């Protein structure tokens, strides 16, 4: 008895495979946290420079900032 189903041949290399290969050649993508850390470093540097202009050497504590809970 013959089966009425057919197996589908495996797809050949396609545009998607080419794109995936190119992406793999580029290496891992930069994580969003890298950009965030770069921004934070910039803000800390800027804040330290501004503090130095008004004579501060140490960063302010939360109490000095008036943070309340």
Unreliable runs: none
Radius of gyration of CA atoms, rounded to a whole number? 28 Å
By DSSP (H or I, 4+ residues per run), the number of helices equals: 3
Average pLDDT, to the nearest integer? 81
Output the structural class: mainly alpha
Q: Assign a percent range to the helix content.
A: 55-70%
Tell me which oligomeric state these chains represent.
single chain
How would you sum up the major sheet? none
Number of domains: 1
What's the SSE pattern? HHH
Instruction: Categorize the overall geometry.
Output: rod-shaped
Number of strands: 0
Topology:
Blueprint: H1 15-26, H2 32-53, H3 62-65
Question: How does this model look, in words?
Answer:
With 69 residues, the chain is mostly helical. It has one domain (16-66). The protein is 55% helix and 0% strand. It has helices at 15-26, 32-53, 62-65. The longest helix is centred in the middle third of the chain and has 22 residues, at 32-53. The protein is rod-shaped. The mean pLDDT is 81.
